[in-house]
Amino acid sequence: xxxxxxxxxxxxxxxxxxxxxxxxxxxxxxxxxxxxxxxxxxxxxxxxxxxxxxxxxxxxxxxxxxxxxxxxxxxxxxxxxxxxxxxxxxxxxxxxxxxxxxxxxxxxxxxxxxxxxxxxxxxxxxxxxxxxxxxxxxxxxxxxxxxxxxxxxxxxxxxxxxxxxxxxxxxxxxxxxxxxxxxxxxxxxxx
Length: 191
What we know:
Elements: H1 17-30, H2 38-54, H3 56-72, H4 82-92, H5 96-109, H6 113-119
Helix pairs in contact: 1-2, 2-3, 2-5, 3-5
C-alpha cells in the first residue's frame, strides 16, 4: 500500500483513464455477474470517482488502492485473469480503499435501472400504491407457499381472487408448529 507521507504527490493527483479502467475491473471481479454488460459497472465506477472527489481522504485511499493493485499484480491488475485478480483483491479486502469501493458499489451497482431489468426487479412501487395490488405474487421463481390449517377449522376470508386450499394437519405432529384447536384459545397458549 502506498502512503501519503511517502508519496505527498498523491494528495494532488487526479484520476486517470487507466485508473478508471482498473476500477471497472475491480468492480467486475468483486461483483461478478456474467449477464451484466459493462455499462452498469462503468456508471458505478463513475459514481465512486464522484464520491472520491468530494472527500480528499477517499480520493487518496482510492488512488493508493489502485496503485497497490498494480504493485500486487506485478504489472497491470487489468491484465490478470479473474481468479488471479480475485486473489489480489482478497489481499486488500481489509483496507480503507476496498471498504470504500465496496460500500459505494453495493449502494450504486444494484440501484441501476439496467441491473434491475436484468435481475427482474420492477423497481420501487411506493409511488404506485405498493406491491399488494400490483404484482405482489408475480414472482414465478418462488415456490407456492404452504398454508396449513388443522382439520375442522375454516379458512379465513382472503378477498377477491385469492385461492388457498386447506390441507389437513396432524395435530399430534409438533413439527408443523401449528396450535391445536384447544391451544388456539388464547388462555391456553404456552409461552
